User: Fold Transcription and mRNA export factor SUS1 from Cerrena zonata.
Amino acid sequence: MPSREINGSSVSAEMHAEVQRRLVESGEWDRISRLLHSKLNESGWADRLHDQAKELARSKYPIAVQDITEDVRSTAIAEVPEEIRLDVLAKLRHYLDSQLEK
Assistant:
């Protein structure tokens, strides 16, 4: 059974799928996603990535959308503000803890 590394812990694909299923079914996935989207927009993260993608498209014209996505993806992940990342992780941990208590 394949596993994946999440924050230094090995998680089975089955466990990952089960957690994601519960998050979606409970509505928590949408709530956390909206919170993340809002915080990233407020921080200027989305605007910075948009500007980076536009500059990349101008400098390598013509370029495929897939190429822009691949180039911007690593930057996007690396530039998520630490405060936002920690807040979202805390919300996920809180949800998981509440599920373990049931």
In short: Residues 82-101 form the longest helix (20 residues). Residues 11-101 form a domain with the Serum Albumin; Chain A, Domain 1 fold (CATH 1.10.246.140). The longest strand covers residues 3-6. The chain has one domain: 11-101.
